[in-house]
User: Fold Chloramphenicol O-acetyltransferase from Rhodopirellula sallentina SM41.
Amino acid sequence: MLCSVRLSEPGTATISKAIGGNVLDPKKKHPMVMPDGTVIKTVVHLNQVIDHPRMEIGDFTYFGHLEELSDYASYLAPFLFPLSPERLVIGKFCQIAHGVRIITSSANHSMRGFSTYPFNNFRMSKQTTLEEIQAMFQVSAPKGDTVIGNDVWIGMEGVVMPGVTIGDGAIVGARSIVAKDVAPYSIVTGNPAKPARQRFDDEVIASLLQIRWWDWPTELIESNLEAITGANISALQKAAAEV
Assistant:
């Protein structure tokens, strides 16, 4: 991530309050623009490039893929279809790295019979009804919605499996495969992903989940960036009391 810094005392640095005068804008398709005006087209605000009936994506959540895509929904969640019974819900201010894939329930095959082969997928015709297609999604015992909280960072080529909930502020390590729910403000890594550590102590986590700074007006977030990025919980609590 690129940012501007200013020195406040010898040996210390903080994020500048104004980076060229630009402010956060959730309506930008490409939110990263270099000082010379170069638009980084491989970074996109996901809710500005995805319009899918089974996806809900919060403001400022971005996908930093290493190439431009023509269909971000199909890449990110390739097995979530307009008729799928499940949803993919992603909160605000999430950071999704190159190659991340989210596998939803509609990818599953039925394991009740002798074969897992999806025969009916290849036997559709002009006579196949909407009800018959919807019934095909039910044979695999759907695991429900996949929910990713707010301010979640999913590292490069991470995979999220069906029906998982990832809590606010969690971090998923690169190439980790998340098959179980992830607690808020925890770090998980590996295959299958397992807890590595908790980011903050229980008291701080409880305060952050109550404060929910990501729901604040953009102007208030901007004015409290040093507290957010500097882990100053007392300053955030003070700001929250004035909301």
Q: What stands out?
A: The radius of gyration is 21 Å. The chain is about 20% helix and 20% strand. Residues 1-16 have pLDDT under 50 and may be disordered.
